[in-house]
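Amino acids appear as letters; backbone shape is given numerically. Here is one record.
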Amino acid sequence: MRALIIEDERLAAERLTSMLQACDASIETVATVPSVRRAVEILGLRPQLDLVFMDIQLADGLSFEIFEQVPVEVPVIFTTAYDAYAIKAFKVNSIDYLLKPIDADELQAALEKFRKISHSSTAAFPQPGALEEAIQLLSGKKNYKNQFVVKVGEHLHMIPIEEVASFYSYEKGTFLQCVSGKRYAIDYTMEQVEQLVNPDIFFRVNRSYLVRQKAIKDIITWSNSRLKLELHHTGPAGEVVVSREKVRAFKAWLDR
């Protein structure tokens, strides 16, 4: 199997190469390219490839731009640090993906899926409609919720998104925390909320918390390269720690 890796982070590319070798020693990484421009040049030469691993955010743009400039005639597995709101577009269109940091078991499963697809007549690379949808999601053009309806006794209240400081899960329930300090139960899972709100405004720091930047009072360096957040209003779920695998993406989200 001959694979091309399109990845602008050298260490991430080297790690993926090593993981591929560990999964299957017969896999040959033909090249590692860091940009849209270089990927277009390489693919334009029509090299003999079986599979392409493609990071979404490259040094000079989104990898979807590659498809607009050169035919990609081999299956693609996306690698991404983006959360599920964007990945949903790939899944419904049978585009495989690996969420960073890449897990060895998930990589193995993706390779098994590739092998099954390669022995069928089903196209394994992105279709135009899928790419347009994914680009739309990643460029922030998706329509996100402007308000949430909450029940207070026998009454329904509408909470504008501007008044929401965070969302959190606690004892099998999902709650909305307002900037005023009030909190309400909502009829959504955290996964659903994550897809309903604008990722430019809210960030999923761990499985239990989705926070707004303005809700953060202080950020403290914690053990094992993790970060602990002090919020203006903290729910009963306890201290808020940024998951280790999300620290880099969280810092990038803050530093926009």
Q: What stands out?
A: The first strand starts at residue 2 and ends at 6. The two ends are 39 Å apart (CA to CA).
